[in-house]
Amino acid sequence: MTDMTNGEGRRGPSFAPWLSKTLTTLVTVAVTLLGLLFVTFMIGRVMPIDPVLAVIGERATQAQYDATYLELGLDKPLLVQFGIYVSDVLQGDLGKSIRTGQQVTTDIARVFPATLELATLGTLIGVAIGVPLGVLAAVKRGSWIDQVARLVGLVGYSMPIFWLGLVGLLLFYGILGWVAGPGRLGIFYQGIVEPITGMLLVDAALRGEWTVFRDAFSHIILPAALLGYYSLAYISRMTRSFMLEQLSAEYVITARVKGLSEWQVIWGHAFRNIRIQLITVIALAYANLLEGSVLTEIIFAWPGIGSYITTSLLANDMNSVLGGTIVIGSIFVGINILSDLLYRFFDPRAK
Amino acid sequence: MTTANLRDWLLSDAPTSRRQARFASWYKGWLTLRSNTLAMVGLIVLALIILAAIFAPVLATHDPYAQDLGQRLLGAGHSGHLLGTDSLGRDIYSRLLYGARISIYIVLLVAMVAPLVGLIVGTVSGYAGGWGDVVLMRITDIFLAFPRLILALAFVAALGAGIENAVLAISLTAWPPYARIARAETLTIRNSDYIHAIRLQGAGPFRIVTRHIWPLCISSLVIRVTLDMAGIILTAAALGFLGLGAQPPSPEWGAMISEGRKYILDYWWVATFPGLAIFAISLAFNLLGDGLRDMLDPKEDTA
């Protein structure tokens, strides 16, 4: 097949530019991911812990040391080592965790669903409240609701998430007793539900275990609400500024002159035009929550990837730390690119 | 010179010297900022915190490091401890005062390192153009694509825990946006007539970039830095909380929260007061940053 995007020949009517942009994007992604690997590789190199000793322990003999030294490929030039590292990672080999004794990929596959569940519920909460709040704030600009939206945003940008989590735990668990404490599930409910997706709420619902579902929900709601608050601060702020831009456009005036109801003008016209921008913002908020969950997971003893990375960090288990960094970094890059592509694909103006 | 005279001199429409024009533009900016109530609140809170940090030895009622196990976990107001004591009987109020020094120290260091790196990368990239630009911007994008806290965690893991390393890790993750801004500014300035004029006078690229492009990038960088200060404080506190920033017994606010975490259900004040301190300083920076943005960059819609 001839390459339509890059030759002297004729280009296709309208598909080709999109394809060529997509290819450029893919190359960018590849370079970015390679850069990500390079950084983690270098971090693994410069750290003050001897990688050989980390594997064999301090009591090993010199012969064992030399053998492992060769086995890890540390005698080869840096560039060759980097090549080996990249090809290992591409084959899904992130090395072995010193702390758990298992492959890092196995570990991450085990802990990741917990983070995914938390971040997804958090984003849902953020969208469900943040979007309407942002729209209202824009429509009633300068009113009390606009001030409330602004305050919510300011507080969200200024409050340390780990502290707010602690205070929430104190208030809703310690004093009011409305929600369950740290952890994913009460001790009585553990091991009842056979995992399908690894996400407890989904699994419990699929298996019809509603008591487990209720317990899992009372555990997840507080951390998810906390994450939701942070994403709603961002989502409402962006929604407001997108809506303000649309509401000052001439077509809105035309629609009003035509006699459309305010509801139709706002939701049927102005909001329709910000949907694609909003998708980008929500995707970004989602990616941020995957990262933001690190601190939340620690406060709530949530066994997700954030807890995994920090526990490994304190145990000097670099393979796990760097593996986790690579996974979160790749997802971050992936979501960014995906939202970018969606934007280009759905927004006729971007073509 | 009387105050009225000074005011007239500052607001004069026809400044007679370069110095007068510069002071006048600062004064006008100050007037705009002063009319923004929230920004002034931020500025005042910030000033108070800085004063508290400077005069910590005078204001403190106890030695922030002195342990007294007989007085541990006392509530606020008990036997001269204004905000109570922590699990080792140390006075929380005095520790908060000294902790302000650490927070301000970290913020200042990051605020000097990261924007400077960004400024150099961005202006060189924008002014040089061509391949250098492509490579530098690709590196910037790679760093931008990283989740910041995770990257900082990985860096600290490699470098070892401690305040200086935390500063380094935060700076390493914070410079890319500044590079982007500086590059964008450079691209708009690069082909303006006055740059051409300077070049015809024989100025080299180094002189053009440092003397004629940098000054024009400063204002947008300052806004961005002020807006980022809160984020820097929160990241530093998070690193301290995780045990990767300032080490005990140093009274860093994040580390203090981490200490109080164990007692949160019974002795809420141990973790609560440092949290409020972090909240106060980052809120102050956010308010001031918003105000500065309104003042220096009226294009942006105030959110």
Automatic annotation (TrEMBL), chain A:
The lineage of its organism: Bacteria, Pseudomonadati, Pseudomonadota, Alphaproteobacteria, Rhodobacterales. Keywords: Cell membrane, Membrane, Transmembrane, Transmembrane helix, Transport. It is found in: Cell membrane. Belongs to the binding-protein-dependent transport system permease family. This is Peptide/nickel transport system permease protein. One of its GO terms (cellular component) is plasma membrane. The keyword Transport applies. It comes from Primorskyibacter flagellatus. The chain crosses the membrane at residues 21-43, 118-139, 151-176, 216-235, 278-302, 322-343.
Automatic annotation (TrEMBL), chain B:
PROSITE patterns: ABC_TM1 (PS50928). One of its GO terms (cellular component) is plasma membrane. Its main location: membrane. One of its GO terms (biological process) is transmembrane transport. Keywords: Cell membrane, Membrane, Peptide transport, Protein transport, Transmembrane, Transmembrane helix, Transport. Pfam families: BPD_transp_1, OppC_N. It is a multi-pass membrane protein. Residues 104-289 form the ABC transmembrane type-1 domain. The chain crosses the membrane at residues 38-60, 104-129, 149-175, 221-247, 267-289. It is found in: Cell membrane. This is Peptide/nickel transport system permease protein. It comes from Primorskyibacter flagellatus.
